[in-house]
Amino acid sequence: MEKGQMKKGLLELCILQTVSCGDLYGYEIMKKVTCAFAGLNESTVYAVLRRLHSDGFTESYTGEVSGGPKRKYYRITESGAAELERMKSEWHEILAAMKSLGVE
């Protein structure tokens, strides 16, 4: 697996996990994820978020206007929660395999 594919998969997992904790607008999601991944391009986070949305793993709505532009909020869907659990299970299997090989 090439590095870009692995990072994309991890980003999907991280974004779904972040959104599963509560409704957030795009900028909040981007800031949380880029804090965890130093050097990550903001546009990459938005691209993955848009794809997760088009795949039906998140849904969006426009929040209340608070003196500024309208914000698009995201929340995880039922299928997104199922996908998140599948991804977390896969991640734990990968971690266990790596640990068994002495990679920590």
How are the SSEs ordered, and which strands pair?
Layout (H helix, E strand, L loop, with lengths): L2 H18 L3 E2 H11 L5 H13 L3 E5 L9 E5 L1 H23 L4
Antiparallel strand pairs: 1-3, 2-3
Notes on the structure:
With 104 residues, the chain is mostly helical. The protein is built from 4 helices and 3 strands. Helix 1 (3-20) packs across helix 2, helix 1 crosses helix 3 (42-54) and helix 1 crosses helix 4 (78-100). The radius of gyration is 15 Å and the shape is globular. The mean pLDDT is 91.
Describe the structure using short key phrases.
3 strands, 104 residues, mainly alpha, 4 helices, 3-stranded antiparallel sheet
Task: Give a quick summary of the entry.
The protein is 62% helix and 12% strand. It is mostly helical and 104 residues long. The radius of gyration is 15 Å and the shape is globular.
Report how far apart the termini are. 19 Å
Q: Using DSSP, what is the number of strands?
A: 3
Range of strand content: 5-15%
Please state the CA-atom Rg, rounded to the nearest Å: 15 Å
* Low-confidence spans: none
Report the helical percentage.
Answer: 55-70%
Which class do the helix and strand fractions yield? mainly alpha
How many DSSP H or I helices? 4
Mean pLDDT reading: 91
| Major sheet attributes | 3 strands, antiparallel
- Shape, principal axes of CA atoms: globular
- Strands of the widest sheet, in order across it, are 1-3-2
Order of helices and strands: HEHHEEH
